[in-house]
């Protein structure tokens, strides 16, 4: 079986920026694995995940996701997009819509175009969305508007939307940054559990090394756009993590960037 | 606000100069001003008591003004939808939206009453020139509001839906429209209120509505009847405002 993610010698600079955000990255994620991305602010975690989601143009190197290679010049085929689910760092929810509507939005790519336009979900879509809500522990919020929710509640909605999409690869950008420690562990259990239950792959970024250790089989350290380590979780030393954050504190500019 | 330095001094001199110039060149006769008090009192006296027999004219004129405002607003909405898109930064290229915005600024700069006079000349007396004038005049503001509503939409949820595989129409329906609709509704109601207020006077230039009767009665010195119509106008404006405040709260 082809790996879920295969990256060879990937480099990328954001438009209008001279400094590369990713530099000569190579990474292999076998199907079914849960991998954590650790790295300081500005390391390139969001950039790497967005690139794998097919949202960035003009990179160099070879990248394939779920057996199909990405094209640096054009977005992936729409039919492939539902297979890759994304949990956005800033949630990216429709504030004025209800929680249920937002979670159903995760199913739009799997509906017929007419149904997607009319917003008439099938009973299967509705069941999937309600199950995702229940899994995330927010079934009682279904009818609430997102703009009335707390940060932690929004984060769960963002995760529920991704799960309702039934992706084969889950890309999660700091999916538990707004949750208290107990809730964070709970949600990561859910996210990696949901991935494992359906044989899906999960790649999540985090600023919490202890959580990464608990929930990932492998940990990738990234700093200044480069991969500095890529090891099975039980091989990761305290020292390596400490160095990851210490090194960049000395790099000009990077240490000054506020945690978003 | 306090003026500072050379610029401040120049600005104060300019303002003082402008005021002096206005006094000098305008023939302000203070004697006329002094006799104005009794005249106004007499005028008000003749307006009282308002003549209630003009109820029929009030209803007829008021209904016509309402129709002008409704159809004029409808015309403005129809014109503003495409122009709003063409004036939006997120939908079209800079040369196009800048051109359209300049055009809208010109339209806004032309007073409604002037447009109405031109339209009366073009299509004759009656509510039709009023409707066209309101539609044209209101588009200058409404299209700009619509463009701002489009540009105010947050991009992140749109990108999220695209990432989930939603097509452009589904994104419009589920990510763009929910963000825009309340803003558009609020702006349209606001513009409708202005249209109704402004079209009250259209009758003065023969462009239809209740203003026709105010003008007729004042010209023929029937101040008691003019007073009734004026009272009716005030009641209409207050009522519109009350309704709008209630409506706008719904779209908060
Ligand atoms: N749209 C953009 N345009 C230009 N530069 C960008 C853009 N987005 C990110 N960058 C830059 O790319 C680098 C990597 O940013 P990225 O958001 O991937 O970091 P991150 O690891 O996700 O950080 P954080 O932990 O704060 O979320 C940073 O130097 C950032 O300033
Ligand atoms: Mg990030």
Automatic annotation (TrEMBL), chain A:
GO terms for cellular component: plasma membrane. One of its GO terms (molecular function) is ATP hydrolysis activity. SUPFAM superfamilies: P-loop containing nucleoside triphosphate hydrolases. Keywords: ATP-binding, Nucleotide-binding. PROSITE patterns: ABC_TRANSPORTER_1, ABC_TRANSPORTER_2. Pfam families: ABC_tran (PF00005). InterPro entries: AAA+_ATPase, ABC_transporter-like_ATP-bd, ABC_transporter-like_CS, ABC_transpr_LolD-like, P-loop_NTPase. Residues 5-249 form the ABC transporter domain. PANTHER family: IMPORT ATP-BINDING PROTEIN (PTHR24220), TRANSPORTER, PUTATIVE-RELATED (PTHR24220:SF659). This is Phosphonate transport system ATP-binding protein. It comes from Marinovum algicola.
From TrEMBL, chain B:
Residues 62-244 form the ABC transmembrane type-1 domain. It holds the Pfam family BPD_transp_1. The chain crosses the membrane at residues 6-24, 65-85, 105-136, 196-214, 226-247. One of its GO terms (molecular function) is ABC-type phosphonate transporter activity. Keywords: Cell membrane, Membrane, Transmembrane, Transmembrane helix, Transport. PROSITE patterns: ABC_TM1. It is a multi-pass membrane protein. Its main location: membrane. SUPFAM superfamilies: MetI-like. One of its GO terms (cellular component) is plasma membrane. Belongs to the binding-protein-dependent transport system permease family. This is Phosphonate transport system permease protein. It comes from Marinovum algicola. The lineage of its organism: Bacteria, Pseudomonadati, Pseudomonadota, Alphaproteobacteria, Rhodobacterales.
């Amino acid at each position: 079986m082809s790996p879920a993610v295969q990256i060879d010698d990937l480099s990328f600079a954001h438009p209008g920026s001279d400094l590369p955000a990713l530099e000569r990255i190579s990474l292999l994620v076998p199907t079914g694995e849960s991998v954590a991305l650790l790295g300081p602010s500005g390391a390139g975690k969001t950039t790497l995940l967005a690139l794998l989601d097919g949202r960035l143009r003009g990179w160099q190197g070879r990248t394939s996701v779920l057996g199909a290679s990405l094209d640096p010049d054009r977005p992936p085929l729409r039919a492939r997009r539902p297979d890759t689910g994304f949990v956005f760092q800033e949630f990216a929810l429709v504030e004025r819509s209800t929680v249920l509507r937002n979670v159903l939005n995760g199913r739009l790519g799997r509906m017929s175009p007419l149904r997607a336009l009319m917003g008439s979900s099938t009973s299967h879509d509705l069941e999937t969305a309600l199950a995702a809500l229940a899994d995330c522990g927010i079934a009682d919020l279904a009818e609430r508007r997102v703009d009335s929710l707390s940060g932690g509640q929004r984060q769960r909605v963002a995760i529920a939307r991704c799960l309702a999409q039934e992706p084969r690869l889950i890309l999660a950008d700091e999916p538990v940054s707004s949750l208290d420690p107990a809730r964070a562990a709970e949600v990561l259990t859910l996210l990696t559990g949901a991935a494992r239950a359906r044989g899906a792959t999960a790649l999540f970024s985090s600023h919490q090394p202890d959580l990464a250790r608990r929930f990932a089989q492998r940990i990738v350290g990234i700093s200044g756009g480069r991969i500095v380590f890529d090891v099975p979780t039980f091989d990761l030393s305290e020292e390596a993590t400490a160095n990851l954050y210490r090194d960049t504190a000395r790099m000009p500019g990077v240490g000054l960037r506020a945690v978003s | 606000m306090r003026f500072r330095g050379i610029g401040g001094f120049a600005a104060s001199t300019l303002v003082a100069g402008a005021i002096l110039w206005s006094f000098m060149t305008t023939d302000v006769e203070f004697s006329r001003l002094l006799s104005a008090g009794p005249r106004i009192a007499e005028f008000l006296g003749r307006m009282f008591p308002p003549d209630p027999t003009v109820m029929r004219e009030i209803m007829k004129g008021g209904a016509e003004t309402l129709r002008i405002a409704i159809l004029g607003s409808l015309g403005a909405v129809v014109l503003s939808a495409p122009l709003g898109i063409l004036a939006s930064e997120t939908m079209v290229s800079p040369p196009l939206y800048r051109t359209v915005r300049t055009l809208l600024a010109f339209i806004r700069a032309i007073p409604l009453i002037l447009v109405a006079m031109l339209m009366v000349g073009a299509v004759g007396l009656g509510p039709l020139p009023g409707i066209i004038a309101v539609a044209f005049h209101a588009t200058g503001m409404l299209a700009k509001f619509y463009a701002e509503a489009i540009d105010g939409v947050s991009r992140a949820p749109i990108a999220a839906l695209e990432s989930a595989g939603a097509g452009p129409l589904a994104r419009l329906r589920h990510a763009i429209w929910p963000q825009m609709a309340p803003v558009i509704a609020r702006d349209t109601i606001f513009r409708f209120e202005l249209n109704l207020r402004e079209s009250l006077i259209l009758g003065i230039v023969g462009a239809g509505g209740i203003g026709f009767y105010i003008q007729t009665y004042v010209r023929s010195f029937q101040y008691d009847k003019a007073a009734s119509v004026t009272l009716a106008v005030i009641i209409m404006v207050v009522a519109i405002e009350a309704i709008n405040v209630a409506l706008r709260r719904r779209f908060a």
